[in-house]
Structure formats: C-alpha cells, structure tokens
Amino acid sequence: MKRTFTPRNTKAVFFDMNNTLIDPGASFDSCFLNVLVDFAGRWDDGDGQWEPRHVLETYKTEWNKKKGRLTTPEELEKAKKQCLETALRHYPFQVNEAFTASFFREMRNQMREHAVPFPHARDTVAKLSEHYKIGIITNGRKEHQEKVLGKLSLSAYVAGDRIFASNHGGVRKPNPAIFLAAVRSMSIRASEGVMVGDSWKNDVTGALKSGMNAVWLNRPGGTNQSRRKVGKLEVPVVGGFKELGELFGS
C-alpha cells in the first residue's frame, strides 16, 4: 500500500535554509554590489562610467567559464582574483592578492546582512505558521541562521529553540538523528513532521529515514514530476513556495 503525504496529520513543518528559504544567487549579487560600492568609495569618474552591476555581471560571466575546472583551494582563490581583475579592468583599482582577500573576506562578513529569500517564502511561512509549528533543520551554524532569520523578519515564526543546527547537535543531515532530535523537541511523532528542502539526499532522504514526511522543493530546471516514489512512499515535488502553499491549502 502506498504511503502518500497529506497535510491532514501534520503538526510541524521544518525548512532547510540555503537554497530552500534563502536564494544564494540573489544573496551573492546583493552582497557583491554593496561591498563593491564600499571598496570603491563611491568612485565615479564624473562621466557616469561607474557601473557596479556591469562589474558584477562581468565577474559572474568570467566565473562561469572557470568554475567547472577548479579542483583545489589554491585554484579557487586564483580564479576569484582573475575574475575580479577582469571585471574591474576599466577602473583604477589594483586587484592584487591583498585586495582580493580583503574583498571576499568583507563579503563573508556581510553575507547575512544581504540574504535574499526566494519569492513568496516569507508569506508562505507566515501562512503555514497559523496552522503548524515551524522549525529549521540545517547543516549551517545556528547563530548565523538566527541572525539571517531575524534579518528576513522570519524570527516571529521560528523561535530560537526551533532551529536545529548540526553545530549544536553534533550530527549533520542526512543523518536521521538530527531529524529525530527536532521532532522530539517539538513534542510530536516523526510522522507528524514534514521536511521541506531542495536537497534530495540531505533533506528528503534523511527525513524519510527518520520516519518524517518530506516535500522536495525542486525549482524550475529540475524534474517535472509532481510526485517521486521512494519504495512505497510518494514524495510531493513542488517548484516554489506558491506551489508549497497550495499543497498545504494555504
């Protein structure tokens, strides 16, 4: 007999963070532009030639040419410098190792301040919170995720004690232990929790092994399936947060 997820018996919905709630591409763009303007000191040659977004697009174009061939940390750092040099070649910056290291260090420091949610993420979480407990299960650091949730105005729906992070529990997804710890903390049975995430291995498989249900958030460009079978289980597949809300009847 097939076991198919329905929201009827669900009491808690857990989300992954990066690539699920947080759009890493849009977050990178926002952070890059802000750090670039800071480093440039709002430089402008007076002729309207300073175009930060063009610098960003050039950097990304160059990076996409190289990223598939990078295998070591040294190659990674060298490629970042080369891409930045090319992107800034028309401007009066000396892009050396020190400049590159400082630039990307500042990006890491500011990344949480420029986190960008996927479309409809905030509204969907808010609506689901009216009917379900909301939690986070993440391989990221809890302290970092708390600050990101606060920046995105999601803290009202996810209390600090409902963020289950690998750096506090000692295990990482897809280990079923992190999912079981989350449902125990919520005082629910595993079958009453559902995990929503973009990673089939870390989010979906890990949750199913713990006895939880799961929804695979597989954005456009992936499979066109509405459900994916795992043995006798059928996992719903959604392409975004609007579909997720519809799945739950929100």
Structure description:
The relative contact order is 0.17. Strands 1, 2, 3, 4, 5, 6, 7 and 8 form an eight-stranded mixed beta sheet that branches. This protein is 44% helix and 14% strand. The mean pLDDT is 91. It is built from ten helices and eight strands. It has two domains: 3-23 and 117-247, HAD superfamily/HAD-like (Rossmann fold, 3-Layer(aba) Sandwich); 25-114. Helix 5 (121-128) runs parallel beside helix 10. The two termini are 28 Å apart. The protein has helices at residues 24-40, 52-66, 73-87, 97-110, 121-128, 142-151, 166-169, 176-185, 200-210, 241-247; strands at 3-4, 12-15, 133-138, 163-165, 193-197, 213-217, 227-230, 233-238. With 250 residues, the protein is α/β, with parallel strands linked by helices.
Looking at CATH, the homologous superfamily of the largest domain is HAD superfamily/HAD-like
SSE run? EEHHHHHEHEHHEHEEEH
Main sheet properties: 8 strands, mixed
- Give the % helix: 40-55%
Query: What is the typical, i.e. mean, pLDDT?
Result: 91
The portion of residues forming beta strands comes to: 5-15%
Query: Spans with pLDDT under 50 lasting ≥5 residues?
Result: none
What class would the helix/strand composition place it in?
alpha/beta
Summed up, the helix count is 10
Classify the fold: give the CATH topology of the largest domain.
Answer: Rossmann fold
Total of domains: 2
Taking Cα atoms only, what radius of gyration do you get, to the nearest Å? 21 Å
Q: At the first level of CATH, what is the class of the largest domain? A: Alpha Beta
| CATH architecture name of the largest domain | 3-Layer(aba) Sandwich
